[in-house]
Amino acid sequence: MSVNDVGGRRRFEDSEYTLHIYPGSIAEGTIYCPITARKTSTAAEVIDSLIDKLQLEKTKCYVLAEVKEFGGEEWILNPTDCPVQRMMLWPRMALEKRASGDDYRFLLREKNLDGSIHYGSLQSWLRVTEERRRMVERGFLPQPQQKDYDDMCGLPDLNEKTLLENLRNRFKQEKIYTYVGSILIVINPFKFLPIYNPKYVKMYDNHQLGKLEPHIYAVADVAYHAMLQRKKNQCIVISGESGSGKTQSTNFLIHHLTALSQKGFASGVEQIILGAGPVLEVRWER
Description:
By secondary structure, the chain is of the alpha+beta class. It contains eleven helices and eight strands. The N terminus and C terminus are likely disordered.
């Protein structure tokens, strides 16, 4: 890398962008608030600028939410997330504010003391969403395109490009699991995601594959109940390149299986199996 490359990269990261933040009921009368930010600016820094510009109460806690379709699911940004970097992943029409690009936006939300999000006038939001749905049904607005498929067997056009685009879109939303029929594709996020706690163990207990969002617990659950019902041993094959997360996936499988059997908590079976993992891996490599 040359000195010019370093300088160019620094100028690129120092470039300023304008974020349009929609405060909703938090600042009535303000449709959106333009905030100047850099590629490295964090959500916490953007919120501080919003508080000063809109003269909001500093004693309250605020978060930024990203929405990729009108009335769609809101993705809460962590304080260290960089809104500009997320915005740069939007399609071109969203960045140019054309047509359906208005569906992509950042919202300012107030966080309650219990950690939940305060949505203000929810009835007003639902009314606008219902009106939009009716206009879509009557043909006055285009049908919203499905952003991703949790089972790629449902892709209308199955080829390498659409397959990779679907995986990429899901990964951007931190959806690292995707089905291809009964096969589970996993993309290593190289960070811990809060989707492996006891709530998820209970959620995926005794559910048919594909009924819930793809998850490695679903695969473990299907194998466990198939073993009980058919009285036959079951096998789960985990394959991938080095660093793809095979060992961690095995750990998650063992954790869910021992939780289902309710033996690991009392006898330490889970820790014994996990401790044998590195030894088994070395023997397999040889």
